[in-house]
Structure formats: C-alpha cells, structure tokens
Amino acid sequence: MGKTSLTTQGALNLSVIDTGSGNYALKIVNPDGTTIGNFLGFYATENALTTAHPTASAGNYAIVGATDTVWIWDTDTVAWVDSGVNGAVTSVFSRTGIVTAQSNDY
C-alpha cells in the first residue's frame, strides 16, 4: 500500500491512495484540509467497496472493477447500489491530438 500525491497550481492537493488488492481511493483536498467531491475511489469488487465503506453519505459514489460500473450510496436503502452506468466512450484522441468521434457517441 502506498500514497501518491500531486499538488495542482499550488492550491489543491490530489492524493491517489493504493488501499491494497487493486483498490484505489482518490481524495481532492483544499488548502484548508477539507475534501472536495464525493468520489470514494476504485474497488476491485463489491465486497472490497462494502468492506472499505460499510456506510457512506448522500452523494458518495465509487467505481467497482468487477462490474465496470459506478456504485452509488442509496440513503433510502442504506446500501451501495450498482447504477449500471459505466464511462465507456468510443471517441478517442488520436496521436495527433485530434478527437475522433464515432457515430452516436456525443
């Protein structure tokens, strides 16, 4: 396990934390120490997510590698819910930096 930090523009601190077993947490921190955003990280499995975060707050979300989807904390059921949404996009930047869009991918 380890931690990699990157400070951007001297204001925000971005920390990528290897929590072990292919799981990563991302934290964006203001200079005053408060955390920005609700993203809790990447977890290999649902079990890894629920072990790391048995509870969460409204708006918290994470990515689970086994399903390749975004999981959202549901305050009504007090549980993690697979949204079924992933970030698959077929548009890519070519080697020249030009965006290559596929049909219906925008």
Structural write-up:
The longest helix is centred in the middle third of the chain and has 7 residues, at 46-52. The strands form three sheets. Strands 1-2-3-4 form a four-stranded antiparallel sheet, with no helix packed on it. It is globular. It has one domain. The termini are far apart. It is mainly beta and 106 residues long. It has one helix at 46-52, and strands spanning 2-8, 12-20, 23-29, 35-36, 39-43, 61-64, 69-74, 79-82, 92-93, 99-100.
Rg over CA atoms, rounded to whole Å, is 16 Å
Principal-axis shape: globular
Q: How many distinct folded domains?
A: 1
Number of strands: 10
- Give the count of helical stretches: 1
**Class from helix and strand fractions:** mainly beta
Order of helices and strands: EEEEEHEEEEE
Helical fraction equals under 10%
Cα distance, first to last residue?
38 Å
Could you give a short account of the major beta sheet?
Answer: 4 strands, antiparallel
Please give the order of strands in the largest beta sheet. Answer: 1-2-3-4
